[in-house]
Design a protein that fits this description.
40% of the residues lie in helices and 19% in strands. With 232 residues, the protein is an alpha/beta fold. The longest helix is centred in the last third of the chain and has 15 residues. It starts with a strand and ends in a 6-residue tail after the last strand.
Length: 232
């Protein structure tokens, strides 16, 4: 992961300065923006590997900016970690629902943040397993990191892609939220079980316009499964 490019979008200069040394020592290349307009210019010139995005920004807030990034084909695959003092569960869910891949509440330790950055980057990297997975017209290509229905590409975020890849490799088996976290996010990652529900909803939404959302099933009181039974 050394040399990967991180964009910090944070209006507080003290926080940007506090992050410079530990992130640079961890091997990351940093760029900084105090507001959304500055961030847009930097992103136009160079796509970052990950964005650390403050919730409360002057002008356009971080949540709205995350929503914009996830709607743009050029930037929708960039992982986002939200930085915010808003610690309520409803705020966390809101941040995740607009496309954030993780959520760090202020105050936080640089060590924890680096662990979260590395975890997000690991799960959004290209898969070594290049086998294409197919269910009827639904195709997942790990090598090209694309999901297709027929000749149409499904617009899907990196975490949802990984979820779908996991489920398509393990059809019919029921997994608890904790098991999904371990398999998709990796062990020793500080993520709440509720995060799984948010990304499941986003995955279903991406598949729904093609009629494949029913494959991702909720097993009440247990967890989730990917079932292809009855699909011809």
């Amino acid at each position: 992961m050394a040399g990967q490019h991180i964009l910090i979008v944070e209006d507080e200069a003290d926080i940007r300065e506090m992050l410079q040394l530990p992130l640079t020592k961890a091997g990351f290349v940093l760029e900084e923006a105090p507001d959304v307009r500055s961030a847009q210019t930097l992103i136009f010139n160079r796509l970052p590997d990950l964005i650390l995005l403050d919730w409360m920004l002057p002008g356009t807030n971080g949540v709205e900016f995350a929503r914009q990034l996830k709607k743009d084909n050029r930037t929708q695959q960039i992982p986002i970690i939200m930085l915010t003092a808003r610690g309520e569960e409803s705020d966390k869910i809101r941040g995740l629902e607009v496309g954030a891949d993780d959520y760090v509440t202020k105050p936080f330790s640089p060590r924890e943040l680096i662990a979260r950055i590395k975890a997000v980057l690991r799960r959004t990297q290209t898969y070594s397993d290049s086998e294409q997975l197919v269910v009827n017209d639904l195709q997942l290509d790990p090598a090209e990191h694309r999901v297709l229905v027929g000749d149409k590409e499904v617009q899907i975020g990196p975490t949802e892609f990984r979820l779908l890849h996991f489920f398509m490799r393990h059809p019919e088996r029921v997994y608890s939220r904790n098991q999904v976290l371990d398999q998709v996010w990796g062990g020793n990652v500080y993520i709440e079980e509720r995060t799984v529900d948010v990304h499941i909803r986003r995955l279903r939404k991406a598949l729904s316009q093609y009629g494949y959302d029913h494959l991702v099933q909720t097993v009440r009181g247990v967890g989730y499964r990917f079932s292809v039974r009855g699909v011809s």
